[in-house]
Design goal:
31% helix, 249 residues, alpha/beta, three-stranded antiparallel beta sheet, Rossmann fold
């Protein structure tokens, strides 16, 4: 695990996007294809913008997978993660394939469907963030660190739901769904590389716990300490509570 404190959120996204682009280009060079996991939310705005603007990516040779999605939310809803990724990634590059989670269908069956696709596609790079409650994808605490199932139906805790409301995705807290489909912790950890972007002071405590605290299901993102190819890019407000010295740009 390596962590870099960037000058601001824009540079955070640019550096993370450049790192992801290099991994994708290398995978295509080495074996003719690349597989990626794309996340959503406020932490991903800048990295996706940088990634779609990157030079030299043979996008038709790239397949993408969806990290998580609310159950029952239509793609037309402003908070739909399918909509988010379609608008910010899929519609902006000629990507070869993107495997959305359609959580409007029977969710357990959808977990199996997308999980089977994922099992045949080793992931070169996963783009992730850290929630205000320390979650990784929609694996809220206490997270399941043991299951090998690629995708899970999960219950969202109130801290997670308040974050989604606070970021402006829903008109009221009660509108935030209580259930979602999420990629499992162990599946995320199978990615060859993980790039984690963490902006904002509201995530400072979660970031400190994730990178400097013990590895624990109570802080799901802390598992990233055990992945040797995880790169954290954070902005100064998110880094305010860190006690160790990290490189700065």
């Amino acid at each position: 695990m390596n962590l870099t404190i960037c000058r601001d959120a824009k540079e955070m996204g640019q550096r993370a996007g450049a790192a992801a682009a290099e991994i994708i280009r290398s995978a295509i060079h080495d074996r003719g294809r690349a597989n990626i996991i794309a996340a959503t939310g406020a932490s991903q705005f800048e990295i996706l913008a940088a990634l779609v603007a990157a030079d030299g990516i043979d996008w038709p040779q790239v397949s993408g997978f969806h990290l998580d999605e609310y159950i029952g939310l239509p793609m037309t809803h402003p908070a739909s993660f399918r909509r988010y990724l379609k608008e910010r990634l899929v519609d902006r590059v000629p990507i070869g394939a993107f495997h959305y989670i359609d959580a409007e269908t029977e969710p357990e069956g959808e977990c199996r469907r997308v999980g089977e696709l994922l099992a045949a596609a080793p992931i070169d790079v996963a783009l992730v963030g850290v929630g205000e409650n320390g979650h990784l994808a929609f694996n809220d605490p206490p997270a399941d660190f043991e299951t090998e199932t690629p995708y899970l139906v999960v219950e969202l805790d109130d801290v997670c739901r308040r974050q989604q409301y606070g970021e402006g995705w829903f008109p009221t807290f009660d509108d935030v769904p209580r259930r979602a489909v999420s990629m499992s912790i162990r599946q995320i950890m199978k990615s060859k590389n993980i790039i984690c972007t963490v902006p904002d002071r509201r995530k400072a405590e979660a970031l400190r716990a994730a990178v400097e605290g013990p590895v624990s299901p109570l802080v799901p993102a802390s598992i990233l300490q055990q992945h040797p190819q995880t790169l954290f890019f954070v902005d100064p407000p998110a880094a305010e509570l860190l006690t160790k010295k990290y490189p700065r740009t």
